[in-house]
Design goal:
The chain is mostly helical. It has 7 helices and no strands. The protein has a single domain (about 10-140), classed as N-utilizing Substance Protein B Homolog, Chain A (Orthogonal Bundle). The chain is about 65% helix and about 0% strand.
C-alpha cells in the first residue's frame, strides 16, 4: 500500500541518480553509497527494491554501458559528455535492458525529465537521441524485449 510519505518512481530515480553520482565522484564502495543514500531513505518503502536493483545493475554493467554510449556518440567525444548525462544514459539503458516490466516510453520520458531538472538545456535532446538510437538498435537485434500488455 502506498502512503503519501512514499516517493514516486521519478523521485526514486532521482535518489538513484544522486547515489550513482556520489559513486562516480567519490569512488566509495557501492555498499556504503547504498547504505547512506538509499537504505537510509525510509520513504523509498515500496520501491526500495527497484532503487537498489537499478543502482546495482548500472554499477555491475558499467563497462558494457560505457561501450554502448561510446558507440552511439561517435560524433561527440565521450569525454565531452557531462557526468550526469552519462549516468542518465546508463540508467535509461539499464531500464530498457533489464526491467522487462517498465515500458520503454516510460523510461524515455522519466530519463528526459530528470535531464531537464539536473542537467543542461541541451541535455534532454542529446539524451533522447542516444536512447532512441539505442532502443531501435537493440530492439531490432532482439536484445530489448518487453513482455506483457502495453509493453510491446
Amino acid at each position: 500500500m502506498t502512503t503519501t510519505k512514499d516517493l514516486s518512481r521519478r523521485q526514486v530515480r532521482e535518489k538513484v541518480l544522486q547515489a550513482l553520482y556520489a559513486y562516480v565522484i567519490t569512488h566509495d564502495e557501492p555498499k556504503y553509497i547504498k547504505e547512506t543514500l538509499l537504505i537510509s531513505t525510509s520513504s523509498l518503502n515500496n520501491d526500495k527494491e527497484f532503487a537498489h536493483t537499478l543502482f546495482d545493475v548500472v554499477i555491475n554493467n558499467e563497462d558494457k554501458l560505457s561501450k554502448y554510449i561510446k558507440g552511439l556518440s561517435e560524433n561527440w567525444g565521450v569525454e565531452r559528455i557531462a557526468i550526469i548525462d552519462k549516468i542518465l544514459l546508463k540508467m535509461g539503458m539499464c531500464e530498457m535492458l533489464f526491467f522487462e516490466e517498465i515500458p520503454t516510453k516510460v523510461t524515455l520520458n522519466e530519463i528526459i525529465e530528470l535531464a531537464k531538472t539536473f542537467s543542461t538545456n541541451k541535455s534532454p535532446k542529446f539524451i533522447n537521441g542516444i536512447l532512441n538510437a539505442f532502443l531501435q538498435k537493440e530492439t531490432k537485434s532482439g536484445i530489448i524485449v518487453k513482455q506483457g500488455r502495453g509493453l510491446k
